[in-house]
Amino acid sequence: MTEKLTDALLYLDGVSVAFDGFKAINDLSLTVEHGEMRAIIGPNGAGKTTMMDIITGKTRPDKGTVLFEGEIDLTRHDESAIALLGIGRKFQKPTVFESHTVQDNLELALKRDHGIIATLFHDTSKEQKDRIDEILDEIRLTERRSHLAADLSHGQKQWLEIGMLLAQDPKLLLVDEPVAGMTDAETVETAKLLRRIAGEKAVIVVEHDMTFIRDLDVKVTVLAEGSVLAEGSLDHVSADERVIESYLGR
Amino acid sequence: MITGFLFRALDRKAILVALILLAIAVAVPVSNLMLPVSHPLHVPTHIMALFGKYLTYALLALALDLVWGYCGILSLGHGAFFALGGYAMGMYLMRQIGTRGVYGHPILPDFMVFLNWKELPWYWYGFDQFWFAALMILLVPGALAFVFGWFAFRSRVSGVYLSIITQALTYALLLAFFRNEMGFGGNNGLTDFKDILGYSVQAQTTRASLFAATAIALAIAFVICSGIVNSRFGKVLVCVRDAESRTRFIGYRVEHIKLFAFVVSAMMAGVAGALYVPQVGIINPGEFAPANSIEVVIWTAVGGRGSLIGPIIGAIAVNGGKSYFTAAFPEFWLFALGGLFVATTLFLPKGIVGLVSSGFAKLRGPREADRVEETLQPGTEAAQ
């Protein structure tokens, strides 16, 4: 641990990673403040998912600095340690535990001691049960709490996964394509849900759906070929020549 | 905290299975010892011995199911833990022979005298005490599983690769135990046992007691497994099986979870081996044969993995079939076994238990049946 270098919640500086010579991330720098919501857009292969892999410890960068809360070097921790530090991640393809019930999915994600003794012997407390009820309400799955996650619709699985992130009580949520495959009505609800979460927690949303990004109404970062192409409001970046050329124009 | 664990462990299914096993543990020995041979309910000694052996296999299959059925770790080397537990028991039994061996040496077992060894190797010390042997029955398989699992799970070796190295593990032990220099009796193994805890291993009462001990051990193991599976830890095991990376991103240390399950399972396999040896009267390196470990997988698959009753039913059914087939049509047994595994994989992905529960559900109504089918879909990650 070094002394605090930045006030930002998440701080990436000069991060690069290459796979077999292909530079997936090239000198990427990005900062996200406490409680901020940030949208990240970019063409396929721009490095959006790889960036999330680096933040969550799945991929080690070849060089660069990745700091959480100004002092924790994320490149030195693995996925489960980073999850416990307070970074939650929703995958592109909704990934829930299909052979468990909706309620069990949330209980398993709940922030508490995940050690072997605790998981073998401890019960879920009253407060923890109340918290699960709250989350079920928030993600509109109260009526389906005892159904298997496998039986949920695609959109409901997306919400359940967001609910699991909430149960983790992270400081930063990374949300990869939350509205892929959702109906228009579900998309609108998801935008509302994420806006409610932001403020209390920082949220990074990767998405292709421009209407959804507009609904979110937050600062947008455009990635291309592994680095930041433009940053600012959606109107600002959509006016950028290079953004139009590399992404929007196509 | 322990009461909570027990409370979760003793669900209806566990109470039923434990009661049945305890009833068997009492009824079979009583009928064997007390009823006259002519009585229709008399259980002959050879049948009791045969089923005692099946129950140790059932315990081994239950141990495998904990890691394979629930956690998705397809171990093709569980026979190694079984054999190690068996050897630990065998060493105790060898040291009970004393001067009654062929060479009459008070300390050295016959094979060591035969090899012209002058002193007992250090790793044979303590095995004259039952408590020490009992400790080793748990510790040796547990320690091997710990070291093996520590490296394998930390390096995130999984799926087929893990299965292959577990095969290599048991094969390496097979070769090692064949060597006379190892001090475990080489290819003859350990045999000619006389006493266990002061009672003759040949005596009918001892055989009956061993049968009862095996049934009780299986009942205890079942309750422990039930407690594990019903706890949050058990749910996390299924999470690891179905979506390992998701489990990691929630903050669970997947490698620790796998390691714990693997070690517990190896210890249970060791106990099974230890109960097996006095009942069959011999332990030799053949027990490490890779094919043995694969057979355990077949029992578990046929009975139904991912349910605790499945492996017990599978082990008894397949071995019962084996005893019958190898007597009636000896040359066809391996074809039958292979065919059984293929048929189970194709038509009964959840084994006998899956068939029975979906059958019950169909009786209740077609919609229920679909739900059970879905519930019973096994994890895909292990198969990849």
Task: Name the descriptors.
heterodimer, A: 250 residues, alpha/beta, Rossmann fold, 4-stranded antiparallel sheet, 10 helices, 36% helix, globular, B: 384 residues, mainly alpha, two-stranded antiparallel sheet, two-stranded antiparallel ribbon, disordered C terminus
Fraction in helix of chain A: 25-40%
Derived from helix and strand composition plus strand pairing, the structural class of chain B reads mainly alpha
Strand order in the largest sheet of chain A = 6-7-8-3-9-10
Kindly report the name of the CATH homologous superfamily of chain A: P-loop containing nucleotide triphosphate hydrolases
Seen as an oligomer or otherwise, the chain set is heterodimer
CATH fold type of chain A:
Rossmann fold
N-to-C CA distance of chain A: 45 Å
Strand content of chain A: 15-25%
Largest sheet of chain B: 2 strands, antiparallel
Radius of gyration of chain A: 18 Å
Q: Determine and state the CATH class of chain A.
A: Alpha Beta
Distance between the termini of chain B: 37 Å
Query: Spans of chain B with pLDDT under 50 lasting ≥5 residues?
Result: 372-384
Alpha plus pi helix count of chain B: 16
Shape of chain A: globular
Q: Which two chains share the most extensive interface? A: A-B, 35 and 32 residues
Q: What are the segments of chain A in which pLDDT stays under 50 over at least 5 consecutive residues?
A: none
| Anisotropy-based shape of chain B | globular
SSE blueprint and pairings:
The complex is a heterodimer of chains A (250) and B (384).
Chain A: E1 10-19, E2 22-32, E3 37-41, H1 48-55, E4 63-68, E5 72-73, H2 79-85, E6 87-90, H3 102-109, H4 116-121, H5 126-138, H6 154-168, E7 172-176, H7 184-197, E8 202-206, H8 210-216, E9 219-224, E10 227-232, H9 234-238, H10 241-248
Parallel strand pairs in A: 3-8, 3-9, 6-7, 7-8
Antiparallel strand pairs in A: 1-2, 1-4, 4-5, 9-10
Helix pairs in contact in A: 3-6, 5-6, 7-8
Chain B: H1 2-9, H2 12-34, H3 45-68, H4 78-97, H5 110-114, H6 130-154, H7 159-178, E1 190-191, E2 195-196, E3 199-200, H8 204-230, H9 232-242, H10 244-250, H11 254-280, E4 282-283, H12 290-303, H13 309-328, H14 333-347, H15 351-364, H16 366-375
Antiparallel strand pairs in B: 1-4, 2-3
